[in-house]
Design goal:
This protein is of the alpha+beta class. It has three domains: 124 residues, Translation, Eukaryotic Peptide Chain Release Factor Subunit 1, Chain A, CATH 3.30.960; 113 residues, 2-Layer Sandwich (Nucleotidyltransferase, domain 5), CATH 3.30.420.60; 115 residues, 60s Ribosomal Protein L30, Chain: A (2-Layer Sandwich). The protein is built from nine helices and 17 strands. The strands form four sheets. Strands 5, 6, 7, 8, 9 and 10 form a six-stranded mixed beta sheet that branches. Strand 6 and strand 7 form a beta hairpin. The model has no long low-confidence stretch (mean pLDDT 88). Bound molecules: zinc ion. The site of zinc ion (ZN) has 8 residues, from loops. The site of zinc ion has 8 residues, from loops.
Length: 385
């Protein structure tokens, strides 16, 4: 698949980039052609950078760091103006830069992002983590009695594999009165259809072994589904997320739309399950916490296993770069006594730390009513704190 697609490994590499005494520029630009005409990219970029420059000058940063940020801004502007070309299904442009440490990384992603510039001691990766959390590797099998198409969908990008065709020429008759000969032909056609289905089921297993998709959707007629389903290998059975009302003859846009809709429904279901589980664990006094204060307290202790957070919950705060101390109030680090640095979003810092501790992040769509029950943020713990 397209190497533009950001992976959790890329994010982990960004997490490991923790320069001493630095200001890192994280630049996000929405380049979704449905919302932003390409002719506006340059102006938008210049405006975003100029506004950030002005607000930085009002803050109290050492001149050396500000010079490095100015260099980042110049490089970013130069990239957008002279080197960025909108190709394929790219909807978001992300650049992480730190001139003082010779770091400049560009990501083109298939998701629209909120345009913004963040200048912080670390790369701002929260939107990337949210995207990774929301999308799954899907395999889509579209088949009828004559043909089959195998498509992999990941983050709105689609990769079509080789198609398969059966030997069935004529239409399989339905109903009616048959003589002996017709019945023989009918049986032979039925065998050919089964052979075709089996070949497709084998191919899907092969793709699973290579690509490890998470979910499998079958696009075929309801009356044939029960014939195909048992032919899938037992490894694949738990991956099957259901039948879609699409077939191999449908237009690619119809197919992508149906797949993304199905994926969104699965994601919602998962989010509800996690919230329900978290609330239930809290209620019985199990290994869980809720609320920003508890979460910030749990992180330097390495206790946070799964951070569950409202997609839209942000909060400025303070962070000690040496020991993962996080706080809402200004002051020195409670562990090492160093001065804690101000950050635009302390939730982002919390997420980074959890990922570094090999924990997980679950983003919950902000309109979920149960988020109130955990005060918009909570966590499953490794041990009691
Ligand atoms: Zn500290």
């Amino acid at each position: 698949m397209d190497n533009n697609i950001i992976t959790i490994e890329d994010v982990r590499k960004l997490l490991e980039f923790k320069p001493e005494e630095a200001l890192v520029t994280s630049f996000y630009l929405n380049v979704d052609p449905r919302h932003v005409p390409a002719s506006k990219f340059t102006t938008l970029t210049r405006n975003l950078l100029r506004e950030k420059q002005q607000s930085l000058e009002k803050e109290d940063w050492p001149q050396g760091l500000l010079d490095s940020v100015r260099e980042d801004f110049k490089k970013i502007e130069n990239f957008v103006v002279n080197h960025f070309e909108l190709k394929g299904r790219v909807r978001g442009l992300v650049i992480i830069a730190d001139a003082a440490h010779d770091f400049f990384q560009v990501y083109r992603i298939a998701q629209p992002v909120k345009s913004r510039v963040v200048v912080d001691p670390n790369p701002y990766i929260r939107p990337l983590v949210a995207i990774l959390d929301e999308y799954h590797r899907l395999m889509l099998v579209l088949l009828d009695q004559r043909e089959a198409r195998l498509l992999e969908v990941y983050m709105g990008e689609i990769l079509e594999h080789k198609a398969y065709y059966s030997d069935v020429r004529g239409k399989v008759k339905e109903g009616g009165w048959y003589g002996l000969e017709e019945r023989r032909i009918e049986r032979s056609i039925k065998n050919k259809v089964i052979q075709h289905y089996q070949r497709v089921a084998d191919a899907v297993l092969e793709h699973f072994r290579v690509g490890h998709f998470e979910y499998l959707f079958i696009g075929m007629r309801a009356e044939d589904y029960s014939l195909f389903l048992p032919l899938l290998h037992s490894y694949l059975q738990p991956r099957v997320k259901g039948r879609l009302d699409i077939g191999p003859k449908d237009h690619i846009n119809t197919i992508i739309e149906a797949a993304l809709k199905a994926e969104r429904e699965i994601e919602e279901e998962e989010e509800n399950k996690i919230l329900e589980n978290l609330v239930e664990t809290l209620n019985r006094g199990g290994l869980a916490i809720k609320g920003i204060d508890n979460v910030l307290r749990s992180i330097p202790l390495g206790a946070c296993q799964v951070l569950v957070v409202d997609d839209d919950y942000h909060m400025p705060g303070y962070v000690c770069k040496d020991c993962a101390y996080l706080a809402l109030e200004e002051g020195n680090c409670a562990f090492c006594g160093k001065e804690a640095l101000p950050v635009e979003d302390v939730i982002e810092e919390a997420m980074e730390e959890v990922l570094l501790q090999r924990g997980e992040i679950k983003h919950i769509a902000t309109d979920n009513p149960r988020l109130e029950e955990i005060s918009h943020i909570g966590a499953f713990l490794r041990y009691k704190i």
